[in-house]
Amino acid sequence: MKSYEYRAAAVQTLAKMGDVEANLKICAHYVKQAAQQNIRVIVFPECMNVGYLYNSQPHARQIAETIKDGKFIHGLAKLARQHDVYIASGLSEWDPEAEKIFNTGILLDRKGELVVHYHKQFLTTHDQNWFKFGERGFPVVETELGRVGMMICFDGRIPEIPRCTALKGAQVILDMANFFLIDQAELWRPARALENGVWICAATKAGQERSIYYPGGSMIVDPRGEVKATVAWDIHGMAISNIDPTLADDKHYALSSDKFTDRRPDTYGILTKSYEETPVSKTSIEPIIPSEMTFNMAAAQTHVCESHPTTLDRVIEQVTHGARFGIKVMVLPEYVASPNWRIDEAEARRLAGMNQELLRKFGEVCKTEKCALLVPNVEEVGSKLYPTSFLLGLEGEIIMSYRKVHLFSDEQQWGTAGSEYPVVNTPYGRMGIMMGYDGLFPEAARCLGANGADVILWPTRMQDEKERKYLLVPRAADNRCAVILANRVDAPYGGGSMVALPTQFPVWDVDKVAPNYPDMHKIVLEVVEIASSRQKNMMANVHMFAKRQPWTYSALTAQHKVVNVAGK
To answer: Which of 194, 260, 263, 317 has the fewest CB atoms nearer than 10 Å to its CB?
Structure first.
C-alpha cells in the first residue's frame, strides 16, 4: 500500500427511531470492527442519529440535535479519539440560529474535531416535510484522507451537486444515504464517480423503517466508475476498500482528452440562473394532448464504413426502410458519411465538401417519407471547420443545426467548437442535440434540459462501454428527457445504439434492458411520449429543475485548475 493510500469502510445498517443511545451502540460496534482492520475512515448512513421517518415536523424538531451540544456527535467524537479514526455520519440537525432543521452530514477527524459540516441540498418528497434546503454549499477540506467533500443520498440524483464538489477540488466524496430506490446505488453512484473522476464512498441502510424499505447498496466506487466494494442487499455489514486519493487527480479520458480541462464553463451560464429565468419553467407547463404527441423514434445504427463495408446509398436505403416502418425521428451516428471513426483534417474537409449533397440526399428521404432525420457531419464556414449536426424536417429543410461544444483531442486538431445548446420546437416535440464527447459532460444535457428539451439527440462514437452503461440513462432521467443515442459500429466501443426514456427503466442494468447489438444497419425503435418529458417531477414535489439551488452553482461557470498527476 502506498503511503497516501488508506482503507475506508461504508457501513450498511439501520438506525432506531429516536434512540440516540441505541444508534451510538450500533456505531461503536462498527467502529471497533473497522479499527481492528486498520480502516482509517468509517462512513455511516443518513440521519443515523435518530432515524428518518418522523411523525411530524414538531416530532422532527424534538429529536433533532445541535452540532454543538448533540449527544450523537459527542458520542462519535469519543469513538474517533478512542480508535484513532475518521468518522462520517448523517444526522438530523437543529440549527438554533437559523431556527431550521437540516439533513446534515459531518466528518470528524482522529481527534474528534469537526472538519466537514454539510447540508443536503436536493430534498425528496418526505425530506421536505421536515427539513429545509441546505445552506452550506459544497465544503471541501484538505485532510489526511485527501481533499474530502460530501453529498447526501438524493443529492446524487442531479449532477450539479457532485460536480460542484469535484470542481472545488474533492478527491473523495463521502455519501451518507437512505437509498430506497436500488438505482441510486447501482447506476447513479458509478455514474457520478465516472463523470467527475472522484472516489465515492456511499453508506446506506438495509431493513424496514416504518413505511420505508431500504434495500441496501453501500459501495465504494473509484474515479473510473469501477465498483471496488459492496455490501450485499438486505444485510448489515461494511464495504471495505483501499482508497488512493491521488487517482482522482488524473482526469484523463480517451484520445488524450481530459474530463475537466475540456469543460466549457463559458457555455454553462443557464445552469446558474433561477428556475423562473429558464425556458423549461415555461415549456414544462404548456398543455399538450398526449395522444397527439406520441411518436416512434429510433437510433439508426448505420453509417458509411470501411471495416464493415457500407456505402452511403446503403445507409440511405436503411433509413428509408425505417421511415416506412412508421418511425418519425431517426438519429444517425456521428460523422455518418466517414468510413472511419477517427477524423483528421483531410477527412474533415472532405466531409465538409460533400455536406450540401449529403443533406440533399437525406432531405429527399425526409420529404418522401415524411420523417425527421439527424445527420451529423462537418460544415465549413470561411476557413473554419465545425463538427455539426443537422436536423432535417418533413420537407427536407434544415430545422436546426448544432455545432459540437466539447471536442475530443483529435477534433481539436482541425475543428472549431460551438458555444450554444439550442432547442427548437418541431412537430415531434422540442429537440436538442449533443454530439459524441458532449455526452460525457453532464452540463451539456443539463443545459438542453434547462432550455426545455423534450428529446435529446446524441450521435456518437463511444470510447468506452461505461458511456452507455452509466451515463446514458442519467442524461435522460436527470433532465426528464428522452435521449436517442446512435453509435458507430467501428468505434472503440461499437454498437449499442438505444433510446433512453425520461421515465427510466424498471431494471437498472442497461445491458439487461437493451443488450448491445453490434450489427450494422440496426434500427433501435422506442415509443416516445412527449407528455412524459414535459412532466419534470421524478417523484411528487421533486422537480428536477425547480428544486435546484442555482445560486450555489458558481463553480460550474468558474475557470478552474485541477492537478493532473498523469500529466506531470
So the answer is: 317
Amino acid, single-letter form, for residue 55: N
Q: Quick one: which of 355, 346, 394 has its CA closest to 375?
A: 355
CB 192 within 8 A of CB 156: yes
In the chain, % helix, strand, coil (3-state, to 5) comes to 30, 30, 40
> C-alpha 386: how far from its chain's center?
27
C-alpha closest to that of 89 among 184, 192, 20, 171:
20
Beta bridge mates, 390: 375, 401
pLDDT(385) > 70: yes
> Does residue 75 contact residue 27 with C-beta atoms inside 8 Å?
yes
Q: DSSP label at 60?
A: H
CA distances from 367 to 37, 102, 364, 486 (A): 68, 57, 5, 22
Q: Which of helix, strand or coil describes residue 20?
A: helix
The pairing of beta strand 219-221 with beta strand 199-203 = antiparallel
Output the nine-digit C-alpha cell for 44. Answer: 455511516
Q: Cell numbers 465545425 correspond to what residue?
A: 386
Q: Give the chain's mean pLDDT.
A: 95
- Three-state secondary-structure class, residue 43: strand
Q: What's 133's DSSP letter?
A: P
The CA distance from 174 to 43, in Å, is 7
Rounded Cα–Cα distance for residues 130 and 522 (Å): 50
Distance CA(387)–CA(402), nearest Å, equals: 8
Q: Which of 450, 453, 479 is nearest to 270 (CA)?
A: 450
Residue 33 amino acid letter: Q
Integer Cα distance of 549 and 4 in angstroms: 35
Determine contact, residues 501/475, Cβ cutoff 8 Å: no
Residue 208 forms beta bridges with which residues?
Answer: 213
What single-letter DSSP state applies at residue 206?
A: E
pLDDT in tens, 460-518: 999 999 999 999 999 999 999 999 999 999 999 999 999 999 987 767 788 888 899 99
DSSP 319-345: HHHHHHTT--EEEPPTTTT-SSSS--H
DSSP structure string for 151-201: E-GGGGGSTHHHHHHHHTT-SEEEEE----STHIIIIIHHHHHHHHT-EEE
